[in-house]
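Attaching the record inline, Q. Sequence:
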Amino acid sequence: MTWVSIGRLGRPHGLGGELHLDGCALSPAELEALREFTWRGASDERGLELIAARPANARILVTFAGIGSREAAAELTNGELLAEPSQLPDAGPGVAYHFQLMGLEVRTVEGRVLGSIADIIATGAHPVYVVQGARELLIPGTPAIVQRVDLEARTMTVALPAGLEDAMA
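Structure, as predicted:
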């Protein structure tokens, strides 16, 4: 089965088994609607049932069934929280999850193929798409540059700013 990364569990918070969830694009309410997750550590994997999720600054704090102490929560630290793609809520119009963008063929508005998306770098302002082709390109994911994303055709059309390819040479 193909799993989607929801985020990475960070350090425990408090004494009751709460954990920081980092890198999560879902809201606490969306997480609670999913409820069932798979946790994957360096050498272990197990199912987790979410009891509660709440915002905490730029992170989310989560509590799982059977994890009632700081020590039990610490065992999950640095593990990846995964879910089935079919369980995720619709990202909304004009929005896609990162896993949906991975591997998309990237073309210029003129039709020239640049390569495919190999990674996505999260920044404070907008994502940066790492495109692997004849050479690696870092393409800012701004509305002025990303002209069209067609998930069905598995393509992204971009209008590269003058000099972007030259700067990467």
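Helices lie at 28-34, 70-74, 98-101, 164-167. The mean pLDDT is 87.

More tomorrow.
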